[in-house]
Amino acid sequence: LKKLKKLKFTGYIQAQVQFADSSGISSFAGGNFPTAVDKRFSVRRGRLKATYSGNPNNLFVLQIDVTEKGVGIKDAYAKISDPWLRAFHLTAGVFDSPFGYEISYSSSSREAPERGRMSQTIFSGERELGAMLTFQMPKDHPMKWLKIDAGLFNGSGGTASDFDFQKDFIGRIRMDKTTTNEKIKYGLGASFYS
After folding, report:
1. How far apart are CA 118 and CA 152, in angstroms?
2. For the chain, is the Cβ count within 10 Å smaller at the N or the C terminus?
3. 4 backbone dihedrals φ, ψ, rounded to 5°
């Protein structure tokens, strides 16, 4: 039973209904309508996530998305942390692109269920397949406010195989601070994508 306590399941379903002013219109949200359709029901997201944390130095995540269009992988990654400083973390697999603030911000914490159009256009699906090295001190360290991510990715989205010999580099540096009474959180960051 101790091993089962390290495994956590979460999930949610987001149903969607759309009404268009005419049949067969183009739509960014949910894809274009078929020729003779002006109303539709769909499952926008049907997520099931399994997280296994064997110890503080490793984390394994598998998240699937089940809709009427089929089953797809949203996340499938392992995160290994160094056991000495607990400051360096290697993440490999399919996971959120480390660009900007919005992509890696959890859907359960955002004000709106959808990410901005820029994130959806440039980082289609928001996930990437690759490996990333992160530097961030533990929560009890005075420099916990600094986080640096640097990763190499296929550049074809999280669900497609690589199509060339080049890799995409995505880097981010963030500084997050909280007031002493912990009522206000503020931050500054910069991202780079090549």
Report:
1. 21
2. N
3. -70, -30
Distance CA 59, CA 141 (A): 21
The closest alpha carbon to 28, from 120, 156, 107, belongs to 120
Share of the chain above pLDDT 90, in %: 52
166: three-class secondary structure by DSSP = coil
How far is it, in rounded angstroms, from Cα 169 to Cα 194? 5
Q: Is pLDDT above 70 for 176? A: yes
CA distance 10 to 181: 31
Q: Report which of 87, 97, 96 is spatially closest to residue 193, judged by C-alpha positions.
A: 97
Beta bridge partners, 178, equal: 185
Q: What is the pTM of this model?
A: 0.85
Phi, psi of 117 (to 5 degrees): -60, -35
β-strand partners of 193: 170
Q: SS3 breakdown of the chain: % helix, strand, coil, rounded to 5?
A: 5, 50, 45
Alpha-carbon distance values, 110 to 6, 107, 115, 119 (Å): 27, 5, 8, 14
Gap between the Cα atoms of 88 and 136, Å rounded: 7
